[in-house]
Design brief:
The protein has about 350 residues and is an alpha+beta fold. The protein contains eleven helices and 19 strands. Strands 12-11-8-9-10-4-13 form a seven-stranded antiparallel sheet. The chain has a three-stranded antiparallel sheet with strand order 5-7-6, with no helix packed on it. Strand 1 and strand 2 form a beta hairpin. Helix 6 packs across helix 8. The radius of gyration is 27 Å and the shape is elongated. The two termini are about 15 Å apart.
């Protein structure tokens, strides 16, 4: 429609594959609420089929492609742009693969203790170990290594609500996960360490070493707070005439490198799409936190109360009284929900377009 010709353009990744195109930013100035009070605005709903584009829906509903833009005005979720339009099965698969499949996930659940020898946490009154709480994982040169193995992965981020550590660039997938055909290996122990991607002759080598020193200083302070006994044992054995760097590297080798402070992963997911994102008590229908889902209590299908940890390799989720939704399932659910869009009735579409045009002028 010609009255959009002076609108600024905006880049959108229409197919969610990293390729952007310029389209008119038609909804940046006026909210449909400004005209919704007028009596001629009447809506109905339309089910978008897989792969059906906005212009095709406009042609089907109104006999012209001119009114495709109204869908982005009257649906709040579509104000995010063309990327929020319901995706076809192929588009959704590409989107999920791009978002999640280059990351693997380790489920690292905290262990609770009544004594004050761990780390205090906001999710309970007890003290916790086997947690990354308070440890800076944003450092660029961190990797997580399987205990007693040379298999490692680079650390990406940690989700403190779901207790999920995202990793990538796994050096040896089989030994890092130790899985056979299922891609699941049960529990496994890991340790965190720094690394330097440059050789000593590279000008950037010392810069990275200094950055790693700074992280180790913070890690040492973190360990002194939550693992005082372990750190005290290290300090009693380490030489007293070490430089600061030598001391920090000794701490890394002795405490972190030998797994004296390590982490146990309760569940491992090769593809990030398979990692849980929502938990529900199957019997009560109530949502559960990741901590409660794995540690309990939750209700079994026979009415009994179960306390964790939940062992997915031994029993199905439904038998354990849990409904677990993966990130893949959530994306499919969200995409399906978006196939029901609100549309202006055909008898009112011209009046709507004119009213919108007047508000823009």
């Amino acid at each position: 429609m010609s009255f959009f010709k002076n609108f600024p353009t905006r880049q959108y990744d229409i197919q969610s594959i990293g390729e952007t195109v310029n389209i008119k930013d038609i909804f940046r100035h006026v909210d449909v609420d400004d005209i919704a009070a007028d009596p001629y605005i009447n809506y109905t709903y339309y089910k978008v089929t897989s792969g059906e584009r906005p212009d095709a829906v406009s042609q089907k509903l109104y006999g012209t492609t001119d009114f495709y833009w109204t869908f982005f005005i009257v649906n709040d979720f579509l104000k995010e742009g063309i990327g929020a339009w319901p995706k076809s099965e192929q588009e959704l698969e590409r989107y999920i693969a791009k978002q999640y499949d280059d990351r693997s996930v380790l489920q690292v659940l905290p262990n609770a203790y009544s004594e004050t020898s761990g780390l205090a946490a906001s999710f309970g009154e007890l003290y916790y170990k086997n947690t990354f709480l308070g440890l800076d994982l944003s450092h660029e040169y961190l990797r997580i290594r399987r205990l007693n193995s040379n298999a490692y992965a680079l650390v990406d981020r940690f989700d403190p609500n779901l207790f999920q550590l995202y990793v990538h660039k796994i050096s040896d997938v089989k030994n890092f996960f130790d899985f056979e055909s299922t891609g699941y290996s049960g529990e496994a122990d890991y340790l965190i360490e720094t690394y330097n991607p440059y050789n000593a002759q590279n000008p950037l080598y010392e810069q990275v070493e200094q950055s790693n020193d700074a992280w180790l200083e913070k890690a040492l302070a973190w360990a002194q707070k939550g693992y005082a006994t372990t750190v005290n044992g290290f300090e009693q054995q380490v030489a007293t005439n070490l430089t600061q760097r030598e001391y920090l590297r000794a701490f890394e080798a002795y405490v972190l490198g030998k797994g004296l402070i390590g982490w146990q992963a309760t569940a491992l997911y090769l593809n990030g799409r398979d990692a849980p994102v929502n938990y529900t008590d199957t019997v009560t229908g109530e949502p559960m936190t990741a901590y409660d889902a794995y540690r309990g209590p939750y209700t079994l299908s026979n009415g009994e109360t179960r306390y964790g940890p939940y062992a997915p390799e031994l029993e199905t989720a439904s038998a354990a009284g849990l409904t677990i939704q993966s990130r893949y399932e959530l994306e499919v659910e969200k995409n399906f929900a978006r196939t029901d869009i609100k549309v202006v009735k055909k008898s009112q579409i011209h009046a709507f377009a004119e009213a919108y045009k007047k508000l823009l002028l």
